[in-house]
Amino acid sequence: MKNNPNDYDTIIIGGGPAGSCAAAILGEYGHKVVILEREKFPRYHIGESLIPFTFQPLERIGMIPKMRKSHFVKKYSVTFVQPDGKRSQPFYFFNRYDRETIAQTWQVLRSEFDQMLLDNAREKGAEVREETTVKKLLMDGDTVVGVEATDKSGKTYELRAPITIDCTGKEAFTSNKRGWRMNDPYLNKIAVWTYYKGSKRGEGIDEGDTTVAYVPDKGWFWHIPQHDQMTSVGIVAEGKYLTRDGVKDPKEIFNREIEENQWIKRYLSEGESTGQYFVTSEYSRHSKYCAAPGLVLAGDAFAFLDPVFSSGVMLALKSGHLVGEAIHEGLVAGDLSPNRFEEYGKAIRFGVENMRKLVYAFYDPKFSFREVIKKYPEAAGEITDCLSGDVNKDFTGLWDKIREFVPLPDDLPYGEPLEAEEPAAA
Ligand code: FAD
Prior knowledge:
Layout: E1 10-13, H1 17-28, E2 33-36, H2 55-60, H3 64-69, E3 73-75, E4 77-81, E5 91-92, E6 105-107, H4 110-123, E7 127-129, E8 133-140, E9 143-150, E10 156-160, E11 163-166, H5 173-177, E12 181-183, E13 189-197, E14 210-215, E15 219-225, E16 230-238, H6 239-242, H7 250-257, H8 262-269, E17 272-273, E18 278-280, E19 285-287, E20 291-292, E21 295-297, E22 303-304, H9 312-333, H10 342-363, H11 369-375, H12 379-388, H13 396-403
Parallel strand pairs: 1-2, 1-11, 2-7, 4-14, 11-21
Antiparallel strand pairs: 3-6, 4-5, 8-9, 9-10, 12-19, 13-16, 13-17, 13-18, 14-15, 15-16, 19-22, 20-21
Bound molecules: flavin-adenine dinucleotide.
């Protein structure tokens, strides 16, 4: 344990799911770990629908009892709705998994969920400094040895550690600064969303169903029922489609698009928008490398694919989990060289690539889950596995079936080596 108050075993930039998960693991092992978080929590964040395989990292950091006690709406399924309002059979997770554990997940309010995760990290021994922004990485040659942080009074100070985790989410602090950022050549979507109070929702186990409602050839709506009769609802499509005819106002865009899906129109007609509308710029990107000397990237700061199958928080927690364990092993071994993170980087990259194939298929106008399942009934289970986030599974069989309906790229765009394998390219 370090004695100098400014020396840590690990510095984590960003207190979202990835940062809080890694901090909880390292704190629990007894390492001296600090999270530096720009905002004061609870803070707003999009990304509210969890998927079953979020269970393992949440269980690892002791969050499951807290989630069970929470008022978050329980989620058992995902359903797809055609533009004419026809619903698919829900993909119920309990058709594949244990109903008492992983098959049931949650629709969360991120301000509350992220606060719970951050408090959990504190309980496990992590120090958290909110309203603290990291502006610079401290270098010794090509090795990151700490950070320069600024607190809310404007005071700037230095903290040092043998390893820093970049968990800055879409800010992607390192990949932007080092030119590692790679945009997805096929996904260039934006989202416009709002919240409705008292709108229609399913009943019983269908209350917490995530509905994905198609907009023909253009995109889709999400419909995520939350507690207190609130529903998160948004549209995802290319920016040039949503802002066609020069319309830029998110409220105007949203209200125009509701007309494009009969189910969404009907479900929202019973409720009222909170009047607050949000918009995001293009978000699909990937860092070329996941680690460099003294540095590792986790969560969205490493990669973010697309919101359609709600995999973001699961991947962020999973990466926080894997990085936390890898750092613990490295601290014990006295070796935190980048190749310690090679397995981690490969696992997350493989998971993202798996999910990416289903995302590409989903956005192909000729693709339909129904047609694939009609020809290959066993594909229903494989698709449920992918939608549940079992992303490290070998889905070769599923991709071969889907390829009969739509092309899927063999060579995905992120086959670059990790910096761990190619240190000269820092
Ligand atoms: P974040 O949760 O973004 O946390 C990063 C933290 O870092 C923030 O708190 C930020 O304040 C802090 N930070 C940034 N820069 C600095 C700095 N320089 N210094 C200090 N602190 C800093 N995922 C799902 O699972 N389900 C969904 O339904 C879903 N829907 C989505 C819809 C849309 C439109 C989008 C764009 C994303 C959606 N996601 C969804 C993805 C999800 O939001 C992210 O994958 C998830 O939040 C990633 O967690 P993270 O910990 O990596 O980053």
